[in-house]
Amino acid sequence: MPTKRIALLACLSLLAACSPRAADGRVDGMDAAPPVAGKDAVAAPASAAEPPTADNPVTGTGIETGADTGMPDLDELERARADAGCEVSNDIGDVDDIRIYCAMPADVRAFLERENTCQHFAGEEAYDEERRVELEAADKQYCEGREGIFADLYARHHDDCMLREALIGVGNRYDLFTDLAPDHCRTQDVR
């Protein structure tokens, strides 16, 4: 399931960034600074020293950002919110969901908010008993029955081609197609 992979990558990235070794720049008691190169050494390419940007994510570290993980950066989310055309709920954390949010009817907006909240809690770790109970309650509130709710929305809005296309994207993004065949809007040949 893509959400679990994204959550795992996010957790690993957070652990790597927060580790005591990362904080003091030391690895196994040794300084993490690269050794001084001798006169015959080949210099590293200049691009390796460039800071990460949206076009040049951090690479070579085992920790990828942006499109490599499926997780947008905060700037990308804020740009999408600014371009949305309406006030987008803070519960929406997926760029594609932000982009379609304002064009959706209230029932689809509510589902997008619920699904994004479900996905958020699904990526959280139960680090103690209290958190486990909290996550189970969130799962019950936001995730239980999501496939059925989605199927109802899809059936309710099936006649509106634009909505159906948007819902197909949502269904594919969150693995919500159970017994529904995603039938994209096509013109029928009339003979």
Name a few traits of the molecule:
single chain; globular; about 190 residues; mainly alpha
What does this structure look like?
There is one protein chain. It is built from eight helices and two strands. It has helices at 2-18, 20-24, 74-83, 95-101, 106-122, 129-143, 146-156, 161-173; strands at 26-27, 30-31. With 191 residues, the chain is mostly helical. A two-stranded antiparallel sheet has the order 1-2.
- In terms of DSSP E residues, the strand content is under 5%
User: Count of DSSP E strands?
Assistant: 2
Strand order of the largest sheet: 1-2
Span of the ends, CA to CA? 43 Å
Helix content: 40-55%
Class by alpha and beta content: mainly alpha
SSE pattern:
HHEEHHHHHH
Give the overall shape, derived from the CA principal axes.
Answer: globular
| Total DSSP helices | 8
Low-confidence parts, pLDDT < 50 over ≥5 residues?
A: 19-66
Mean pLDDT: 73
Largest sheet: 2 strands, antiparallel
Multimerization state? single chain
What's the alpha carbon Rg, rounded to whole Å?
Answer: 22 Å
